[in-house]
Amino acid sequence: MIFETSLLSTAYFPPIEYFAVIANSAKVEIESGEMYQKQSYRTRCHINGANGLLVLTLPVLRSAAKEDGASSHKLPTSELKIDYSKPWLLQHKRALEAAYMSSPFFEYYMDDIYEILDSGEESLLALNTRLTRKICELTGIGTPITLTDGNFILPGAEELTARNISDFRESIHPKRESHLLERLKLEKPYWQVFTNKQGFVPNLTILDLLFNEGPNAISFLESESYR
Asked: What is the pLDDT of residues 122-132, one digit of tens each?
């Protein structure tokens, strides 16, 4: 065990380092009490297509504003609803198929992933949590995942130290450089669909690892010191 309890933000098909944290933790808590943050992994993921890096964004309803006119982006993440008026689901499926149809394990796992995406889940937090738990199941990660009680704890608070919680809510972010995989000694390449054309692209969405490595994905997530 490297981390006793890890605290993560909710995330939509988050990067490999996110699941490396889960795989190397005794237990994981996903934050449910924070205010929503735009341009983070909470509503976006990075895949690699034929023309390079592609960002898939999950739209949320801005109309879920309070009576005082506050934007939904001022609401707790737990209250955010997914915007199905936009064709994001079809776009994301087409992008995933274009990027990974030729990968070894796409057809093996796609039905499990699509079943959740097609469920019409209204809540952003609920959808992300279902997807995260399913991917843990598919990759063989047995770490228990729970939601926090809704009482937000500020980063750096003494309570985190007292409870021996490792806080990754802000460090795993698309706009911040991370050395987490290096820290866990998990910086190792694997075969990707466009490796011959683009070279290896690290820390993409967990789907990239799952579709390309299948049952062997767990070996890229568990640190040697954890096993």
From this structure: 999 999 999 99
